[in-house]
Amino acid sequence: MSSMGEDEVSSFFESSPPLKKMEDILQKLNGFIELNSSGGRRRIVCVTSGGTTVPLEQRCVRNIDNFSSGNRGAASTENFVKAGYAVVFLYRSGTCQPYCRSLPDDPFLECFQFPDNTNIQGICLSFSIYIHRFIFNQMFCTAVAEARLLKLPFTTIYEYLQMLRLIATAFKDVGPCSMFYLAAAVSDFYVPWNSMTEHKIESGSGPLDIRLAQVPKMLSILRTNWAPQAFCISFKLETDSKILIDKATKALGKYKVHAVVANELSTRKEEVVIVSSSGNVVVRRDSDKPEAIVEDNLIRLIVDRHSTYIKESHT
Amino acid sequence: MSSMGEDEVSSFFESSPPLKKMEDILQKLNGFIELNSSGGRRRIVCVTSGGTTVPLEQRCVRNIDNFSSGNRGAASTENFVKAGYAVVFLYRSGTCQPYCRSLPDDPFLECFQFPDNTNIQGICLSFSIYIHRFIFNQMFCTAVAEARLLKLPFTTIYEYLQMLRLIATAFKDVGPCSMFYLAAAVSDFYVPWNSMTEHKIESGSGPLDIRLAQVPKMLSILRTNWAPQAFCISFKLETDSKILIDKATKALGKYKVHAVVANELSTRKEEVVIVSSSGNVVVRRDSDKPEAIVEDNLIRLIVDRHSTYIKESHT
């Protein structure tokens, strides 16, 4: 880590608009960690999910958004809870939620589609099916009852990185039993807050040129400064399969993470590749089970590797 | 309208990725108009709502988004239905829906907030309150039962403008009884599809410069070519109140719409100004009624003006 990188990171945070409700977030976070690091429960993972936005105007109307449904993060969270982890779910507002993935975007509205379903009794019936599917989801009840899931929402790149720093700092004491599973689609480019126009950009005077700066690579700082003992998994998404493994391998070396999960946009629900110093492993969905998802097998493998990492840290 | 403007519009549509399920949309739309233009029900409005996105890559990961909750469009739709209109609600996927505005973003999740509500009975109780508030919403049931609401979702600027053109063309026969109420936050700038990169933009090589072209002003074409007899209301949102009325007045002259609703970002839920050739009228929320919204008074006024317009068209 060059001091150049650290300078960029400092100036990013200094120029960021301050996080709202920071005290409240910290209190929830510390309470959650305390609760979950006692009584034999030790492992904790921060799952990041969904895309960050980059505002183009301070009083934000326009922004650049990174598309991500949040499905990977939500599904992985369910599997981590199942494996006994406490999960801090750092997610983009409005994206997929754990235990709600099988629900339609808007369950209320799905039941009211014109013109197939104009009968009120039919509506109530199809609605109650949704409710039952959700309410009686045993795993969700377990997670809530045992307080194993803390959900924290973000929207902008500023919120995301400030919250990630808070979480990493709070995880420091958990040491090797903590994990970062960074599935969020984080913006690579942004408009520094100080150089941003306050008001809405005017239209009507020809083309608009925007110069975007690179977001400093926080992953290095997370590894070296914020939570150096945590097990760390990052993601690489590409649309071009030809360059995917090469880029994931480079990221592994550059950020010194423990593994990079490589996925291609069009096949990401069927297979991913775990790239690590011990070689590349292709992980597929069990295609013979209709309910199976690729995250079932992915998290099983990641948890195994985390177990090995914890054992090795203690010797 | 210069031929220059028309050329731009033609080339925009020619280079747009084709609309998916166009046949299906057309069939729904024509069925809805036919149903609602018989039996004494005559008035029909197209309410547009939410923001459009501009893809930055063809296999879209990044895009520029115009923030809009869609609250204005959803609330206005309820008021138009109440006033006897059939409504085509052209909305951005995932934004506010009519009759669901009072629900939280995610009603399922609100009931499950850690750590206040870890008791399953408490969860079920608070959830059933939401359900009842929704299911028994009388106006909604009426709208569905009488088939007065057709909802059509969009995401990109390409989808929005192609669907708007379809609707305008389909409204042509309804003449002065049709209305366009254009509350959507439409992108002013875009990257022409043909000049767009197919794959994800690479990061890691310095700042990124993006040149955005202006989206051709479709409002003029809607007024002069697509649906010249329709009553037409457009919106102007600014963050700077000093330039708001001036910009709204210029838009009124430029696009020859019947009125422009001017609103400032920070006060938009309290008041708007209707700018028209007969002068400017400030419309406020009835602040003595807690449930009142500014759209109650806004739509009452707009409907009155539409009535006058229809009368004048028949003489």
From TrEMBL, chains A, B:
Top-rank taxon: Eukaryota
InterPro entries from the UniProt entry: CoaB-like_sf, DNA/pantothenate-metab_flavo_C
Domain DNA/pantothenate metabolism flavoprotein C-terminal per the UniProt entry, residue ranges: 163-283
Family statement drawn from the similarity comment of this UniProt entry: Belongs to the PPC synthetase family.
Protein name: DNA/pantothenate metabolism flavoprotein C-terminal domain-containing protein
Species, as recorded: Brassica cretica
